[in-house]
Amino acid sequence: MTIAIVDYGMGNLFSIYNALDYVGGSPKIISEPDELAGVGGIVVPGVGAFGQCMDRLCRFEGALNSARECGTPIFAICIGLQVLFEESEESPTARGLGWIKGRVVKLPLSVMIPQMGWNSLSIKRPVEMLQGIEDGDMFYFVHSYYGQPEDKSRIVATTEHGVAVTAAIARDNLFATQFHPEKSGAKGLRILENFVRAIRC
Amino acid sequence: MLARRIIPCLDCDMGVPGGRVVKGIEFQQIRYAGVPWELAGQYYEDGADEIVFLDITASHERRETMTSVIKKTSRSVFVPLAVGGGINSVEQAREVFNAGADKITLNTSALKRPELISEISDRYGNQAVVLAIDAKRRYTLEEGRHIVQTEQGACWFECSFYGGRQFTGIDAIAWASRAVSLGAGEILLTSMDRDGTYDGFDIPLTNAVAKRVNVPVIASGGCASPDHMLEVFKKTDASAALAASIFHFGEWSVRNVKTYLKERGVNVRI
């Protein structure tokens, strides 16, 4: 089953493509919303600012909503996680996808911003996407903002950077990480492998 | 809490097919170490947190060799890859990012035209721009310099460019903070006095820069043992330590170095 990597013109998609390919998935970079119909899974990558990201992603909004309603597994990464929220301090006039109630806020000024480097996970609840991952395993983060869901049970893992930072969220067929699994060595690949397996099921 | 990173550095001579990794002593006396993508793969398997490729023979034709090395590496190496050497335009940076690099490092081109830092960071983000500084101690004190106390006496640090072959008269500490204000997201700080000497990192230099900027500082130059890494992490706020010879010539593996550091209380990813 094809995994569609949504190319909406923000940043480098080769890393995620290579990583999915490496763990046995069948990734395909797609740049038109109608190509999302019938795919096995969807990856929403992202770098850049929230507003700019939404400006470019909005033409995919309808197709993403349909995929989500159909139960297609969706994996959002970094800014991809942030745009699931309703709004962000980074771009106050922009509106997010709103799939997760809550907002995206800036990291506290007491710490290095952006958070850049490897940080450990504190797992809040077990989910299939985190199979094989243990408390304390480290992942690669690069970000200045983080999501704060109204319903805290959406948070499946946090990391400590001045505050408890939302590191991964899950809801139904939706999974998202603030860190970059495609840059997080063997543990990151394990999460992507879990995603590939979820699609085959 | 963020882990301290261990970064193997591959100095690449792209003048031969496929490129080769070399290592010099005090920016001279070249020694052959291996094939770039093979070494990168080995270090990745061994737990490297990031890998830096520096094209020491940068020229336009050879950049194509570098992009093919990065393409090949990024198919099986899943940690951040930084690439530097001779990148002097947004277009050239784009070629390297498109090959699979996550960061580019700038040195000579940024000293000659500082706006290049902003041009690339505006497009790819600050996290994607690493400013590399090659700094040399100058014990002849001049007004307006950032004076640093060392065991050998008070000195300031001068930036070099063209791979250490020419000096700029620019104060390295002032340049680091200016580069950050222009959009550099990280500083790769190499001590020319220590590079290849096996004497350990320049602690006063690393401290002076790390205290001055609020972005990660990668300490580089002089590392010959895990003890040197332990020292730089205990005595400075360096976010990462970069080394070449210690890994290339089989003295220590990345994994052994990390285990050594972890046993001594340094937060590293094992």
Structural class of chain B: alpha/beta
Read across the widest sheet of chain B, the strand sequence of neighbours is 1-4-5-6-7-11-12-13
Residues in helices of chain A, as a percent range: 10-25%
Q: Please report the distance between the alpha carbons of the first and last residues of chain A.
A: 10 Å
Task: Assign a percent range to the helix content of chain B.
Answer: 25-40%
CATH topology grouping of chain A: Rossmann fold
Continuous helix count of chain B: 10
Q: How many beta strands in the DSSP annotation of chain B?
A: 13
* Main sheet record of chain B: 8 strands, parallel, barrel
Low-confidence stretches of chain A: none
* H/E element order of chain A: EHEEHHEHEEEEEEEEEH
Discrete helix count of chain A: 5
How many separate structural domains of chain A? 1
What is the mean predicted local confidence, pLDDT of chain A? 95
What is this entry, summarized?
The complex is a heterodimer of chains A (201) and B (270). With 201 residues, chain A is of the alpha/beta class.
Quick tags:
heterodimer; A: 201 residues; alpha/beta; Rossmann fold; eight-stranded mixed beta sheet; three-stranded mixed beta sheet; 13 strands; 32% strand; globular; B: 270 residues; eight-stranded parallel beta barrel; 10 helices; 35% helix; 29% strand
